[in-house]
Design brief:
Elements (H helix, E strand, L loop, with lengths): L4 E7 L5 H15 L6 E7 L11 H9 L16 H4 L2 E4 L2 H10 L7 E4 H4 L16 H26 L2
Parallel strand pairs: 1-2, 1-3, 3-4
Bound molecules: 4-nitrophenyl phosphate.
GO molecular function, one term: protein tyrosine phosphatase activity
Family: Belongs to the low molecular weight phosphotyrosine protein phosphatase family.
Keywords: Hydrolase, Protein phosphatase
């Protein structure tokens, strides 16, 4: 089996979008028997919520879809992440810009927007649900879960080669 691919989901606060993306991807990888093929983590470019669990609405939304993200704790993106991961997958364009601005010279990780990288064509950015309601969190779940499904399909195809 090839070396595990290391993917870091990145958003602003690491309490809404990126922990939901981490949870969705982990769950789909596990269900496909590919838990060992991809290492998944998440981080935020901001530090307001470091050490906190995901937003209660994110926890509730993930739980409705059978995924437990209550044990995750927010952390801030650190310089070493740019070498420890293969890909930093960002929730929106401003996060991607902040990630690229923070990349140390010569860092090996690539960075991209999660939805286009996952093959999701209908939109490129995951809207920030923080000031919204449960419907906004459900919309985020739909987006991150679609990207997760595409990443798993791609990983499965790669693993069979
Ligand atoms: P996230 O959402 O980036 O999806 O985790 C946010 C969480 C907190 C804040 C902004 C966005 N905040 O400003 O505290």
């Amino acid at each position: 089996m090839p070396a595990p691919q290391r993917l870091l989901m990145v958003c602003l606060g690491n309490i809404c979008r990126s922990p939901m993306a981490e949870g969705a991807l982990r769950a789909r990888l596990h269900a496909a028997g590919l838990g060992m093929a991809v290492e998944v983590d998440s981080a935020g470019v901001g530090r307001w919520h470091v050490g906190n669990p995901p937003d209660p609405r994110a926890i509730t939304c993930a739980a409705r879809h059978g995924v437990d993200i209550a044990g995750l704790r927010a952390r801030q993106l650190r310089p070493a992440d740019h070498d420890a991961f293969d890909l930093l997958l960002c929730a929106d364009a401003s996060v991607l810009q902040a990630v690229r601005a923070a990349a140390p010279a010569g860092a090996r990780a690539r960075s991209a927007l999660l939805l286009p990288w996952g093959g999701f064509a209908a939109r490129t950015e995951i809207p920030d649900p923080y000031t919204g309601g449960m419907a906004d969190f459900e919309h985020v779940w739909t987006l991150v879960d679609a990207a997760a499904a595409a990443i798993v399909a791609r990983t499965a195809a790669h693993a069979q080669r």
